[in-house]
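Readers outside the structure-tokenisation community will struggle with the description of the input data as it stands. For illustration, here is how one protein appears when written out as sequence plus structure tokens:
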Amino acid sequence: MNKSKKFSPEMRERAVRMVQEQRGEYPSLWAAIESIAPKIGCVPQTLHEWVKRQEIDAGVREGVTTSEAQRVKDLEREVKELRRANEILKLASAFFAQAELDRRLK
């Protein structure tokens, strides 16, 4: 199932900034998120994920940063492509080796 990109990155940043700015006015982070989420048109859980992601990227919270996750994803894609290329080369090598043997026997 694909997630729709309903909110632009600018909107997400603005919403997270609003939570951070108004955090002190509420008894908890969740209370601030529940207050702000309806104003921007998203559910509190979504806004909470954005806040957590920003905190991880800023180094405030433990976790894998967005850039590290993207790097791992890119490297995994590259490994997959290289494995596919190696398999093709192995098959081609075996094919040509067999063709060379057949040619010598004739």
Notes: The chain has two domains: 1-63, 65-106. The radius of gyration is 26 Å. The chain has a mean pLDDT of 92. Helices lie at 9-22, 29-40, 44-58, 66-105.
